[in-house]
TrEMBL record:
Native source organism of the sequence: Glycomyces artemisiae
Annotated stretches, region: Disordered: 166-198
Sections of the chain in a coiled coil: none
InterPro entries per UniProt: YukD-like (IPR024962)
Aminoacyl-tRNA synthetase listed as a keyword: no
TM annotation in the entry: 116-132, 138-158
Key word Transmembrane helix present: yes
Name assigned to this protein: Type VII secretion integral membrane protein EccD
Keywords: Membrane, Transmembrane, Transmembrane helix
Amino acid sequence: MPGRYSTVTIVGPRATRDLALPDDLPVAELLPQLLRHTGPEEPEADGTGWALSTMDGATFAPGDTLAAARVPDGGVLLLHDATAAALPDTVEDVRDAVEDAVDAGGARWESGTGRLLAVATAGVLVAAAALSPGADTAVLLTGGLVCLLAVLMSWWSARQHDFMTTSRSSAAPSGPGAPATPPSRSSPQTATRTPRPA
């Protein structure tokens, strides 16, 4: 019966390839094909020994098989210089560091922040128009109306938001198929008995 094959991703110094490898062959027999697909152009030229490792840094012995090492189908293996460390030093990504710092800060942009920014922007624009030399009365009146409209829309939006969150939290499912709520311990349940006929 032929052995099974596992599809694994091999990350080499030159390329990364998805390969179907036999589970029952030792790693020493797989290395020439792996070097041909993902290794340097001329692997024997510099006399470097090569090793295969898992993503957590565990290096395979030459006699190990993929089945014995329990390499999952779809796993990722690293082909590297046998004298070097299997895993490179950790490289910090600036984007990830910024995301972590923002998440740790806990400050979130909420709807109230947006409303405050809209009203403040409208107020600054009206003040700038009023302070500009030769401001027309129509411009000031329009700016004042826009600012008033921004305040009213902000107030209305805040009321709608509060109403929606309150009504959502107070709504309880009822009717057929709704989950039954167990009786609370503070209100004892009384059972009424009907007398039996004698």
